[in-house]
Amino acid sequence: SFAPQHILVTGGAGFIGANFVHWVARNHPQVHMTVLDALTYAGKRENLDGVPAANLTFVHGNICDAELVESLLSGLNQRSAAAVPPIDAIVHFAAESHNDNSILDASPFLNTNVTGTYVLLEAARRHDIRFHHISTDEVYGDLALDEQRKFTELSPYKPSSPYSASKAASDHLVRAWHRTHGLKTTISNCSNNYGPYQHVEKFIPRQITNILAGIRPKLYGQGLAVRDWISVEDHCSAIWTILTRGRIGETYLVGANGEYNNIDVLHMILKLMGRDANDFDHVNDRPGGDKRYAIDATKLQTELGWVPKYTDFKEGLAATIDWYRAHESWWMPDKAGTEEKYRKQGH
Ligand code: NAD
Ligand code: TDX
């Protein structure tokens, strides 16, 4: 097994990245982390508030900046006062992550998700550094609503949206750098995450904050699309498991058997927040929207012994609602702009 001492966490000021930094600082306090984040609309420095200074170096910058990335890996850019060991692993979260945005303009998706991943792979190769790539089940396209099948590590790549296609491209680059250059890589493809720090553009936070802001929730189409929900905490523990004990060159699917259709999730949110179950609007569906995602995580469970801890989805939703209630000043600045953008898309 591998015991990282200093991890470069790209996109560590975003939703899952920030949760991962908090998780590592809590569970493995001997590990230092350098977060490299461009602080796009989706990243906030304050997401890392509370992480002990001894665990964290924050660098505001872009993963496409090859010189900056090189300086971090060669230790030239070490801003932390205390001596820290050289970076010995990259955990790569940084991405443009929202499907609806990729339909409006795919160009930042190609830059960050494809070129940015390439820049990091080249730097990792020069320094022979362990590389864990964070990816998504969306690279496999979708499943039908009326079948039992789930995605496995052997499912064919068949991405539907510009976002998914850019993530699929990044997966292929990682696989090629392993096969051709011998880079020590692992990949995880996870299903839909929920939890604190998720941007209000995403389904669950959008509906919660709509209700809190006095706006009716918005359901795409008939709400029959199915997503396989996992607590972001469980995703973080899976990433740690794969980074430290995963086999080099392998892909692991991450999921926790949390399949629900969108209308059922919305009904749960409305009920938990004391609203009428019909108190929402139907809006335009997403062009080309995927029907169903479902993960078979057998490989991760049997090979590495990972088990999810937060499997009561309703309890997880209730905790997430509490978090957004208690953090209005965190999400409110993004709310009006996000809703205005959706209004123009008929969402
Ligand atoms: P997010 O949009 O909340 O955060 C992305 C972070 O990356 C932000 O902090 C942003 O500032 C940063 N970033 C963007 N472009 C950058 C660049 N060029 N250079 C440096 N930093 C940049 O995304 P998220 O939901 O936390 O997703 C993180 C990763 O997990 C992504 O790779 C995504 O594809 C993957 N993933 C997400 C989910 C999900 O349900 N959210 C599920 C599976 C996989
Ligand atoms: O207001 C909404 N109403 C609605 O019905 C929004 C924003 C979404 N939806 C629907 C569309 C999808 O069927 O909810 C479902 C989930 O939508 P998103 O939150 O946008 O997530 P999804 O498209 O499934 O992608 C997410 O999971 C996989 C993440 O955003 C990706 O980064 C990850 O790769």
From TrEMBL:
Cofactor section: NAD(+)
EC number of this enzyme: 4.2.1.46
GO biological process: nucleotide-sugar metabolic process
UniProt-recorded Gene Ontology molecular function terms: dTDP-glucose 4,6-dehydratase activity
NAD(P)-binding domain span: 8-318
Catalysed reactions, as listed in the record: dTDP-alpha-D-glucose = dTDP-4-dehydro-6-deoxy-alpha-D-glucose + H2O
Highest taxon above the source species: Bacteria
Protein name listed in UniProt: dTDP-glucose 4,6-dehydratase
Species annotation: Bifidobacterium longum (strain NCC 2705)
Name of the gene: rmlB2
Region of the whole protein represented: 69 to 415 of 415
